[in-house]
Amino acid sequence: MPVELPPLPYDAKALEPHMSANTLGFHHGKHHAAYVNNYNNLVKDTPLADRPLEEVIKTVAGDASKVGIFNNGAQVWNHTFFWNCMKPAGGGTPSGALLERIEADLGGYAKFFEDFKTAATTQFGSGWAWLVLDGGKLKITKTANADTPLAHGQTALLTCDVWEHAYYLDYQNRRPDFVSAFLEHLVNWDFVARNLAKA
Ligand code: MN3
């Protein structure tokens, strides 16, 4: 079964003005779609074609002969996860058990905000900033290019795409402004809390 491009979980205009329909149209309809097509072409007629995407990503991670499958497969997974990390009128401070864990493991929401923003803005070149569960504790990490917590035994809870294609149409070179808008207006904390609850 080929991997399919999932529909966005909201209308393409729903995240405006913080993320435009133009950005989402290119990002989902061109970039994400290209990763899906590339992945399907690379695994076609191989034993990997019938295996679940997450399993393939973990299997080929670190295998130099399958770097194309890893890069495209991880980008498919990362983008599907990223769309679900956002919602209209999102952002702000989480609550409940998730907030308690942020306070216990990361020094509180204000420190989380600064540390996540620092991870996102200091990722040199293309990549992703993450909130993950690692060894039973919340951690903030960043990965380069397509790399993903799935390949490192971590559970992804939240991510922000910091490839230029994620923000350049709306923010040009101002990545810090994009990351602030993501945290203040777009994060779907209900999705993050569900990821933590089932981890
Ligand atoms: Mn992207």
Describe the structure.
This protein has 199 residues and is mainly alpha-helical. It folds into two domains: 21-84, Orthogonal Bundle (Helix Hairpins); 96-198, Iron/manganese superoxide dismutase, C-terminal domain (minor pseudopilin epsh fold, 3-Layer(bab) Sandwich). Helix content is 50%, strand content 12%. Strands 2-1-3 form a three-stranded antiparallel sheet, with helices on both faces. A hairpin with a 2-residue loop joins strand 1 and strand 2 (137-144). Helix 1 (21-43) runs antiparallel to helix 3 and helix 2 (53-60) crosses helix 3 (67-84). Manganese (III) ion (MN3) binds at residues 27, 31, 79, 161, 163, 165-166.
Oligomer: single chain
Spatially, the strands of the biggest sheet line up as 2-1-3
Number of strands: 3
Q: Which architecture of the largest domain does the CATH hierarchy give at level 2?
A: 3-Layer(bab) Sandwich
Which class of the largest domain in CATH terms?
Alpha Beta
What topology emerges from the helices and strands here?
Layout: H1 21-43, H2 53-60, H3 67-84, H4 96-106, H5 109-122, E1 127-134, E2 137-144, E3 155-161, H6 168-171, H7 175-186, H8 189-197
Antiparallel strand pairs: 1-2, 1-3
